Structure formats: structure tokens, C-alpha cells
Amino acid sequence: MNPSVAVKIFEAGKSAGADFVEIFEEETRSSVLGLKSSQIESATAGTEYGIGIRLIYGTEVLYGFTSDDSEEALVKLVQTLAFGRIAGQAVKPVEFAPQKRVADYNVDAFKDPRVLGQAVKQDFLFRADQAARKISDKVVQVGASVTDSCSAITLMNSEGLNLSMNRARLRVNVTVTVSDGTERLTTHEAPGALGGYELLTNYSPEELSTEATERLLRMLSAGYIKGGQMPVVMGNGFGGVIFHEACGHPLETESVRRGASPFCNKLGEAIGQPCLTAIDDGTMDGVWGSLKYDDEGTPTQRTTLIENGVLKTYMSDRVGAQEVGIARTGSARRESYKYAPVSRMRNTFIAPGKDSLDSMIASVDNGLYAARMAGGSVNPATGEFNFAVDEGYVIRNGKICEPVRGATLIGKGHEIMPRISMVGSDWELAAGVCGASSGHVPVTVGQPSIKVDQILVGGR
Predict the structure, then answer these.
(1) For residue range 243-285, what is the model confidence (pLDDT) as tens digits?
(2) Are 160 and 241 members of one domain?
(3) Looking at 197, 220, 243, which one is the last position of a domain?
(4) Full-model pTM
(5) Does one domain contain both 242 and 209?
(6) Whose CB among 10, 320, 384, 394 lies 3.0–4.6 Å from 401's, allowing a Cys bridge?
């Protein structure tokens, strides 16, 4: 972005009465190599470029985007956004700081996917396929993929911000399907991190395939649990998806400022037991959901949302922080230049506690051990959720017993949190993608094993 063109954009917005004008310029190159049925099924790559312009009037946001980077087109976009607005005061010239350049990944170790191409991924995919098929003849399908993206972003605003950000992410996925001739089950493993092809050596395709396949084989012959209210011990890692969906979204100022959250006006109140601490941290080196600066140019931070059961703050962006009356937390995120940023999660997790998984299991007479969670749905305004259990076991007389499948966990996030009575020390994170009003963004969920004293379990 030519600074002289940026000045013209800011002048056009300010002269139309905008309090704040922002330019988000992005070029992203992404590629996917996919395998299915023991052969390469797809190989795609593409580059997307565009510029998003945001005008803010008080807390009202006007947003538009274009792939035409000419001065004429950009000024016209501002004028279109501001059509009918009352002209502002005399415009003061914007003084830019020297451009600050940052990268979210380890620059010294980075192996650029744009240089190395697709071929380097093939070995990973075929090894994943072969490993799964060797385990059992009940494996009827294996899918695997490697996805990468590299983004160059320039972020400038009418307050003088001038920031250049380079972002790169890589994610692998192994999906396995097994069948006993009458029923089929499918599951997957999909870790990811910040960086390029150097990350492929961090993941063993054999281990990912083995973990997914063996889990399916345990569940293939499993029965069903009798549903009802019962204590549930939830496994670590991706078990944190329930907190992310049922509690994380209502803790974003995007929900709070609209009055669409059960946590409105509850700062400083106890919303859980003292064993519960929850954090959203954008500063974790190399972790999938991390960022050095958010999509408004605010440095990210480690944000303690709940501390010893007490609600401390929300995740906020510029507009949300202003409306709710809290400090910005560096949580503004967007999928691309096509979206205005709003408050979103980064790496969101329940912090480790002092309890052991064995002690949690031993404390339950009759319940469910949800060793691994799958997908589900949630209403962010109410916190109501419904999540499937990917791998489950009956707990009977303090012991893990027979496997069960088809179980679901049903409840409301703000009602479940006070029922978390034990928090383990076996903390893990898991990569995911979160969709909301500013598009789909990479996030991480996580937790140690936890015990929920009572939750509604659907049996089939």
C-alpha cells in the first residue's frame, strides 16, 4: 500500500465524518494436497488478493472490500460506504510511524511452501494411508491431506498505525473409516501449527493413523449408554471444544455488547467453582491459534477470562471494548480482507488443575467417561449445546468399563461451569477452525481432564 494512497483514503473517510478509518491489505497463497482410496485425489493452489476498508462512526461499523488497488477505486469505495453521511471537520494530516514488520512463525526455521511445492507432501500422505490399512482389514477408507497458507498483510489506520504482518500455517488431516460389514464409523486426527513445511517432521503419519484406527475399532463393537442426568468425566485436549463453543463465544464482546450472552454484567462474580480457571492466549509460540498482532494491529496477550471461578474479563476488539467499557485484549480477528474484524477466540482453554484422571474416575459410581469429543452445535446467546462423544466408556463403581458409542452431551455452558468440581493436570491443546460473523479463523481449544458433577447424556 502506497502511503500517499492511504492518506487519500483516510482523508476521504475523515471528510465524510468517520471517527476512524482502517485499511487491511492482504495477499494469501494457499494449497491443499489430498489423498483418498490410496491415490492422490486432489491438488489445488491459489492466490487471493484484496483490500478491506473500515469506517467507524462511534461504534457503528461500515465495511467494504475490493481487489482493485487503484487510488480511484479505493476512494470511491470509501465514498460509497459513507454515502449520505454528514461531512466532518477539517481533516488533520495522518503521520505514519515507520512500518513495523512481524512474522507469526519462526522465520529462521521456515520452509516456504510456495518454494517447495506439492511433491514434498506426498510421502506423508501415502505413509498415513498405508499405516491405517495395515492395522485391520476392517479399514475400508483412508483420507489424508496437507494444507498450507502464507499471507502477507499490511494494516494501516487513521491513527498512524503502519504494520506489515507475515503469517503461515500448516495443518495435516488423517481420516479413517472402518466397517464390520453392517455399520461404518469414521474419525480423524488433524493437528496444525504456525509455520511451513518444516512442521511436517513434527507429525508422524503412522501415529495419527494408528490413533484414529484403534479408536474406531474399540467403538465399532460398542453398545449404547442409557441416557439421563449423570456425572461425566471429559477427556483432555479436544474436550475443550465444549468450553469454546458454549462459554467462549458468550465471553466475546461481540456477544456481550449485543446483550446476547448469559455473562452480561457478571464481571467480578463467581460463575464456577474455585478449581476453574479459563484463559484465552494469543501469545503461545508456534501454536495454531496464535498471533503476534490481531487484525486491528493490537498486540495479542494472555487473557485470563475466569480465575478461580470468578469472571475477570471478556475477549474484546476496538468496538466491543468501547461499548462494554473494558480494555482491548488483542482479540480482533477476521478470515480475510472480505470481513470486518470482531472479537474472536485464539487459543482458549481450561487451565490445568491438581486432580488426577484416576481420582476423577474413582469418584463416580455410575456415569460416563467421554474420552474424546466430536462436533456439535451451540446457541451462543443462551449457551445451549449438544455435542457428540467420539469415544466413550461407562464408569461403574469408580472404574472404566465397557465402551459406548452414540452418546451426546446436552446442556447450557453457564449452568455446566459451576458443576465442574475436579480439574486434572493432563493438559493438552487441539487445533480447530471457528466460524462466526467475521468468517472462519484458526483457533485452538484445550483442557485437562475434568469432572462435571451432572450433565444430561443422550444415549443414542
Answers:
(1) 998 899 999 999 999 999 999 999 999 999 999 999 999 999 9
(2) no
(3) 220
(4) 0.95
(5) no
(6) 394
